[in-house]
Amino acid sequence: MQYTTLGKSGVRISRLSMGCGRLPENDDESTALIHRAVETGINFFETATFYCNNLCLEKTGMGLKGLRDKVMVQVKVGTEMDSTADSFRREMESQFKRLQIDRADFFQFGWLAWERMPIVLKKGGPLEGVRKFMDEGLIRHIGFTGHDTPENFIKILETGLFESMTVSYNILSRSYEKTIARAQELGVGVIIMNPVGGGMLGHPSAVLSKLEARDDSTTPATALRFVLANPGVSTANSGMANLAQLEENLAAVETASTLTAADHEQMRKILDEYKSLGDSFCTGCKYCMPCPHGVDIPANFNLYNYHKVYEFTDWANSQYAGMKSECRADRCTDCGECEPKCPQKLPIRKQLKQVHALFGKTSS
Question: What is the C-alpha separation between 11 and 323, in angstroms, rounded?
C-alpha cells in the first residue's frame, strides 16, 4: 500500500481508504471485507450514521473490533440551525458507542455550507463542542465535507479552521479541481469521495477506455488512477461492497504512481471533450428520495447514465421497460420536492422527462 501525508496534519494515510457506506448486508461478509482491507494496509475508514440503512456504525465497529490501534476512524455530524456544543457532544458520544470506540481520529462537520458557518462559529456552538472533545483527547483532527459550491468551499478553507476536506471528484465530475488546488496550497488534506462515481464507473466503458494507453486497464482502475494523479489529492475514499472490488482498487492504486503529469494532462484534455457528461451527472447519492409519488429517481438516472456515458442504450431500454410502472420517470408530477435536496443541483424534473422521452417508447 502507498501512503502520503494528509496535509499539515502530519498523519500518514493510505492512498486508498474505505468509505463504509456500501458494506455488505451480511455481517460476516462485512467483517471479512473490513479485515481484508486492514490486512492490505488501508488505515482510514469513513463512516456516517445513515449509511447501510442506518447500520454503518455498528457494522464498522464490528469489523474493526480488535484492530482499532491499526486504523483511523472518521465520524461526522451535520450542522443544523439549532446545533449547539451540547447537541454535537451528545451525537458524538452516541456514534462512539455504536462504533464501540472511545475516540475518533478524525471528525468532520458534515454537509457543511458557507451559509452555515455562523452556526458553527457561534458562542456555545458546534465548533466549541468539538474543540472541547479535542482538549479531552477524544478527537485528534477536524475537517469538513459537503456539496456547496467550489467557491464557497474555498472560503471555508481560507478560514484556517480545518485540517482536511472531503469532496466529490472523479473523471466525470471535476468541478472541485480549483478547490482541491487551493486546499493543497493551504496544506489542507484532501479526501475524495465518489472516486468511481458512486459505483457508476465500476463497469466497463469503451468510451472512457482511451483515457489511458494501457491494455490491462479497467474503467474503475482508470478512474482511481486519474483521481490519485491529482497532486492535491491525499486519498481516494472508495465505498467497496465486496472483496473483488477491494482487490481491483488495490491493484489500481499500486499502479497509480506510474502516471506522469503529462499523462494526467492528457486525460484531462480527453475528459474536456466529455465535459457535458459531468455537468449533469447523478452520483446516486439518493438524497432526493423518497419521492412522494413513488418515482425511483436514482434508478431512472442510472439507466440514463448508462446510455449517455457508456452507450449501453439497448440494455438501458430493456431495463426501463422492466421497471415497475409506478417507479418510472413518467410518474413524476412536477411537484419539485426532490430538487432542493440534490447536492449536485440537478434539474431533476426536466431530466426525468428526458429519461422517459428516451426510453418510454419501449415500455408500456
Answer: 47
d(CA 126, CA 83): 6
CA angle 103, 228, 251 (to 5 degrees): 90
Query: Residue 156 and residue 171: Cα distance in Å, rounded?
Result: 24
E-state strands within 131-217: 139-145, 164-168, 189-193
The pLDDT tens digits for 10-64 are 999 999 999 999 899 999 999 999 999 999 999 999 999 988 889 999 999 999 9
190 lies in some domain:
yes
Number of domains in the chain: 2
Same domain, 76 and 141: yes
pLDDT, tens digit, 9 for 90 and up, residues 262-308: 777 777 777 776 655 545 667 778 889 999 999 999 999 888 877 87
The number of residues in the chain equals 364
From CA 199, how far away is CA 178, in angstroms rounded?
A: 24
CATH number of residue 56's parent domain = 3.20.20.100
Is residue 239 in a domain? yes
Q: Which domain holds residue 358?
A: 297-362
Angle at 38 between CA 34 and CA 41, to 5 degrees: 145
Bond into 298 cis (ω within 30): no
What does the block give as the cell for 341? 435536496
Same-domain check for residues 205 and 90? yes
Domain-located, residue 285? no
Question: Among residues 230, 222, 231, which one has the least CA distance to residue 252?
Answer: 222
- Closest to 359 measured CA to CA, from 329, 334, 333: 329
Q: Is 283 among the domain residues?
A: no
Least confident segment among 156-170, 177-191, 207-221, 303-317:
207-221
Asked if residue 340 and residue 227 are part of one domain, the reply reads no
